[in-house]
Amino acid sequence: xxxxxxxxxxxxxxxxxxxxxxxxxxxxxxxxxxxxxxxxxxxxxxxxxxxxxxxxxxxxxxxxxxxxxxxxxxxxxxxxxxxxxxxxxxxxxxxxxxxxxxxxxxxxxxxxxxxxxxxxxxxxxxxxxxxxxxxxxxxxxxxxxxxxxxxxxxxxxxxxxxxxxxxxxxxxxxxxxxxxxxxxxxxxxxxxxxxxxxxxxxxxxxxxxxxxxxxxxxxxxxxxxxxxxxxxxxxxxxxxxxxxxxxxxxxxxxxxxxxxxxxxxxxxxxxxxxxxxxxxxxxxxxxxxxxxxxxxxxxxxxxxxxxxxxxxxxxxxxxxxxxxxxxxxxxxxxxxxxxxxxxxxxxxxxxxxxxxxxxxxxxxxxxxxxxxxxxxxxxxxxxxxxxxxxxxxxxxxxxxxxxxxxxxxxxxxxxxxxxxxxxxxxxxxxxxxxxxxxxxxxxxxxxxxxxxxxxxxxxxxxxxxxxxxxxxxxxxxxxxxxxxxxxxxxxxxxxxxxxxxxxxxxxxxxxxxxxxxxxxxxxxxxxxxxxxxxxxxxxxxxxxxxxxxxxxxxxxxxxxxxxxxxxxxxxxxxxxxxxxxxxxxxxxxxxxxxxxxxxxxxxxxxxxxxxxxxxxxxxxxxxxxxxxxxxxxxxxxxxxxxxxxxxxxxxxxxxxxxxxxxxxxxxxxxxxxxxxxxxxxxxxxxxxxxxxx
Length: 693
What we know:
7% of the residues lie in helices and 54% in strands. The chain has 693 residues and is mainly beta. It has a single domain (5-152, 315-692), classed as TonB-dependent receptor, beta-barrel domain (Maltoporin, Chain A, Beta Barrel), CATH 2.40.170. It has a 22-stranded antiparallel barrel. The protein has a five-stranded mixed sheet with strand order 1-7-8-5-6. The protein has a three-stranded antiparallel sheet with strand order 2-3-4. The chain is globular.
């Protein structure tokens, strides 16, 4: 089937199904999810349940979220895929666990925030698309919050075992006990996999040309792709006015391979603490008071010991040619009050956090190993105040709006004035400093209208800001060959001025949503190549960051439809387009038109489902960054399962016809990228067995 025919087929089938009058409504979880999406979700929100996660062999949250329209991933290997929402990624998005801010330690983004917790901790995931999250700093393009499980009353336990191709293994065990006063929960999860194969039958470690020094050593081709162990516990106390909860978690990841990059992770070690207290109905006006504090720390070590670049020589006298030892710490607190005010509800609060990031790189240069303060022990401190008001209006309308102000300070503690003047300053016109501060205002206004019983319309306008992170401001890496990698301490904060329009139909057996957005990005932080400042000697260009003006627009569609005979149709479609206003060229790393179409039989006891995933070609690329075009593709997935008593089983095959293809976001152009595209995984069979007590 020609790939350009797939989007037309998708739209045609969905429209045809929408004209059918369902005569039978199956009693299944699918109908419950249609109701939840129709009644509880805001028009700019998406939700993912743990059932949807467990039905797929997703190794991380990025893979799981690909079923949500508008979400994509940057594939770096078998795991730790970075999330992209409407073409925005990295710190343009906020990623939380129970509202706790998480940040990875790797400057090359090996360990995105979603890598540092396990699925077994999570009950559901909420996604806010666009700059409509005022309760947290920096939600420029959206917010993703994973909500953890809460202990119930009595003794409960759950066990999960998944096994699949390439020795894919995902196991977890959780147990909890609760009464009317106390409760507690503990869990353990382990996951691992060998290196997967692409559709051409080659391991992801065997994608390099035979002449490349970045290629893996032959003995590393068939090694473990990753191995992670996670332990967590939480305890709660129910008191007269609410609940207090304390949680702790530790995760250890060993030998995580990243064919996408020039190095692999020796380990990632994550420690998380959290405390929350919720007080309700303190006064007739103060309906809720929420207090939260958290601390997390990540240790990350990566090197090239598995690559040919580390083979012993007169220069390479250690097990590695290059190594980066990075640590990051985030600590913060929030106080939020919900008030009955007039005819509506007012949520207001204050939050504060500190994020420290320190990374030391050692590389063999000039006949010696040279240490460099790659991320020079940078503190970012943020203080924010916010208020958001929601009120009903005549004519079945609701108005929500609010504002937020943030004051942010950044300080590079280990960046000396000498290094700033000799390595950084020659590439920039503006005078640079090791300390910077920003004060930024964000605001939005949203209107929803229940036009008829089943139809809700939405309009929103928002302006949000996010300040540069430590890497964009202060990263510094001098290289003997290739490009230096430098932050730009003169960066301005990025502002997103966005307009959204949406519609949602929520019937007894049909849920459908459609939305369009337009985003004007001023001072958008963008990667650029900076010429050699003096032109003398060897040409040493720099990869750095600059503020540009850009715009993005796009649309999304999603639907779930119950048909007669316990059949369900589900489809998604998304598109985004990005323009660099300064140069008139396309923005880099923008996903193409993509979607899914699935047909499912589900009688509540057992189910079978076939899904077609597809993406159009992407030829809108930024040639100045050597970005390459990507052909379109389409793959078929099959799965089925059953539930009986306390047991459930799900099995399936992804990429049934072993298609060899690439996601457009499989190649990024930072200095540690290998320059070789990482293909998507080939045919993959899996089986999941779960038990709940």
